[in-house]
Write a structure and sequence with these properties.
Elements (H helix, E strand, L loop, with lengths): L15 E13 L4 E7 L2 E7 L4 H7 L7 E10 L14 E12 L17 H6 L1 H4 L3 H23 L3 E2 L17 E3 L7 E3 L5 H9 L4 E9 L11 E10 L3 H19 L4 E2 L6 E3 H8 L15 E2 L1 E5 L4 E5 L5 E3 L22 E6 L2 E8 L4 H11 L3 H6 L1 H6 L7 E7 H8 L30 H7 L9
Parallel strand pairs: 3-5, 6-9, 11-13, 12-14
Antiparallel strand pairs: 1-2, 1-4, 2-3, 4-5, 7-8, 9-10, 10-19, 14-17, 15-16, 17-18, 18-19
Helix pairs in contact: 4-6, 4-11
The structure holds one RNA strand of 78 nucleotides.
RNA sequence: GCAGCCGUAGUGUAGUCCGGUUAACACGUCUCCCUGUCACGGAGAAGAUCGUGGGUUCAAAUCCCAUCGGCUGCGCCA
């Protein structure tokens, strides 16, 4: 007999079936034993009657989280025994045979709860158990659905997903890079990407016109509730586009996404307001305004655009130069007279309930303007060298282009009303960037270090 | 780098301010009983280096010092 999933049981009343899964809980009444069996698709109640002697004997031995296989008849429950609180509360399986596929130790914490009460350290160490929780299973499922929606939506609109390298080059400014030593070039290092920014712009030079990627990004900075060293963003870029096109695409996509996947949610304002950066700073004292009317309403989504950013930060940096407000490829408005203190840019941020969930811009596509920006930022000759491939590429017919990158962990955690993006990631790290399950980061053995031409000079401990 | 909060059976907490018998409670675990439970029920049992090290004291989970770990926030995050 072929094993079926628990969700299929409701159409199998009267049939003999084989199912398999984890014991959620066993309620032993002596002669009568109930087992709630759980698989990836759901839960259902098994009844083991004393007249199936062998099955009864095995059933009385099983414990929570054991993996078992069951053969039995799917039955409608007697009216009085229907549990209206459970999805499959009107059926149960009368067990004819139980097979133990694997025993389990008692889990280090209760898997039946939402898990918020359990110490984070223990949860992360036993993440594979933590993930058995209904809440986290749901979060991962929703995450999959969100990403699938985005992939379908953009694919239907002629976007192409392109993978960009993880092994790339460290760049000046920006976040701290994670670096990877090169074995073939001892003493040299790759950097893991903070975002595919340069690659996606180069894909525009390559003539792709519409690119997107569900991209892993890595930044070696301290974490927060809405920040992990390793995270996922929807990265997209378009050629022959204006800021309005980028805003409209995102707004239509996310609106449709919410309406389809979260029919109970409502928008504070639709279409989303497009707020002037200056006004936002005055009114909200932050560039991430929370426009919701009722912040306690779990179903309210306050999406808002922030536009018309200054091109540079107000204060000059320690080198006496201007730091870009967004990044150095952001196109200024009114390029003829570039007055650093006043210049505005084609930057756009998307905020949701007070969190920044996307940021992007129309990019510079004129090499002379790009050079000028580098000068204003105060790049040294060496720093300019880092970007020579960009300036060089821009000599070969760059289309006007722009795009956006949206943090999916943040988006999904807000949609799921989760207080921390860890709750929507399968294997997140601790606050100080460790993986407690794998015990990473870890030492390298001497042979590896030697091959890489590396020597570890001093250790903290 | 800085600040705040936290660390007590497997899990969650109480006890700490104001030191004093056997460290308490709930859940879980184990044994026995139980034919309609679904937060099953009943009877019983086991389970704690009180994060670690040092100090004060007749006496430390409790006071002092140091240290380790966790969470949250600030810095940082083009």
């Amino acid at each position: 007999m072929k094993r079926i999933q628990i969700k299929e049981l409701k159409n199998k009343i009267g049939e003999i079936v084989k199912i398999a899964g984890w014991v959620d809980v066993r309620r032993d009444h002596g002669k009568l034993i109930f087992i709630d069996l759980r698989d990836a698709s759901g839960k259902a109640q098994m009844v083991v009657l004393p007249n199936y002697e062998e099955a009864h004997k095995v059933a009385s031995a099983v414990r929570s989280e054991w993996v078992i296989e069951i053969e039995g008849e799917v039955k409608k429950r007697p009216d009085k025994m229907i549990n209206p609180d459970l999805e499959l509360g009107n059926i149960e399986i009368e067990v004819k045979a139980v097979k133990i596929l694997n025993e389990s130790k008692t889990p280090p914490f209760d898997l039946a709860t939402d898990g918020y009460e359990v110490n984070e350290e223990v949860r992360l160490k036993y993440r594979y158990l933590d993930l058995r929780r209904e809440r986290l299973q749901k979060n991962l499922r929703v995450r999959h659905n969100v990403i699938k929606f985005i992939r379908d939506y953009l694919s239907e609109r002629d976007f192409m997903e392109v993978e960009t390298p993880l092994l790339t080059k460290s760049t000046p400014e920006g976040a701290r890079d994670f670096v990877v030593p090169s074995r073939l070039h001892p003493g040299k290092f790759y950097a893991l990407p903070q975002s595919p920014q340069q690659y996606k712009q180069l894909l525009m030079v390559a003539g792709l016109e519409k690119y997107f990627q569900i991209a892993k990004c890595l930044r070696d900075e301290d974490t927060r509730g809405d920040r992990q060293a390793e995270f996922t963003q929807l990265d997209l870029e378009m050629s022959f586009t204006e800021q309005e096109d980028v805003l409209n695409l995102m707004e239509e996509m996310y609106t449709e996404l919410v309406e389809k996947l979260y029919p109970d949610k409502k928008f504070t304002q639709k279409p989303w307001p497009r707020l002037d950066y200056g006004d936002v700073m005055k009114e909200y004292k932050t560039d991430r305004p929370d426009i919701r009317k009722d912040k306690s309403d779990k179903n309210e989504l306050g999406f808002a655009w922030v536009v018309n950013f200054p091109l540079f930060e107000k204060e000059k940096n320690e080198k006496g130069h201007y730091a870009p407000s967004h990044h150095m490829f952001t196109s200024p408005k009114g390029v003829e007279e570039l007055e650093p203190n006043l210049a505005k840019s084609f930057q756009h941020d998307l905020v949701l309930n007070g969190f920044e969930i996307a940021g992007g811009s129309i990019r510079i596509h004129n090499p002379h303007i790009q050079t000028k920006i580098f000068d204003l930022i105060g790049f040294s000759k060496e720093e300019k060298e880092y970007f020579k491939h960009m300036l060089e590429a821009f000599e070969y017919g760059v289309p006007p282009h722009g795009g956006i990158a949206s943090g999916l962990d943040r988006l999904i955690s807000i949609l799921q009303n989760e207080p921390n993006i860890r709750e929507v990631m399968a294997f997140p790290k601790t606050g100080d960037g460790r993986d407690l399950m794998m015990d990473a980061p870890a030492d390298l053995d001497k042979k590896q270090l030697k091959e890489l031409g590396l020597e570890v000079k001093k250790r903290k401990n």
